[in-house]
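Example 246.
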Amino acid sequence: MHRAAARLQPLVGERVSATSPNPRGQVTRGAPAVDGRVLESVEAVGKNLLLRFDGDVVVRSHLRMNGRWRVRPAGGTPWRGAPWLVLRTSRWEATQWNGPVLRLDDGRARALGPDLLAGATTIGAVVERLRAADPGRLIGDALVDQRLVAGIGNMWLAELLWHGQVSPWARLGDVSDVELQRSLEWGRSAMRGAIKGERPSRAVYRRAGRGCPRCGEPIRSRGLGDANRTAYWCPRCQPGPAVRTS
Ligand SMILES: [Zn+2]
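Predicted structure in complex with zinc ion:
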């Protein structure tokens, strides 16, 4: 996603003409909405690529496994195949291929919090965003709320809280800035490592009943939050409110 955003940067600031050669791309009606507009920014937010155009028009590209953005100088040979979306400027031609989801932003992506993996995101900015949220929320729920901070899945949540020694059941208001920073720093660095192909060693995720690598206490698990994701934690290393587990 971040690579795709970088590839599209040459088009930023340019007025584009947009077409959808692929019939499946036409269904999303992205091209007529952005045709003739100036591309103001392209950024990766979580698993979405957001293309903002003048007039407050936003296109969201969620690339699954086969989706691709390609960029080349304008005026080359015709494309082989039918891209879902073509953005042309006087100098560049960007094409989107096999992008199953490419549509006008419905407002959800716009509301995404800072992406933990984005180079421009500082841990301080994430902590600030969390501090603006309801302090009564459980930290194990808040950190996977993509509106507060984007990019943290359930496994990373469990692992980063264990490394930061924060209970997933702690209220946001009871977790210190230092604890948040420690957890998020570890999480970001481990997630970046995973992108480069490093295999993370799991301390708590899906290890309920087995010994904590730090203290030997049995790992616990229980559903947490509205989506009832399973939280994993060490009750000794991550002390917090008493939680009954079966
Ligand atoms: Zn422990």
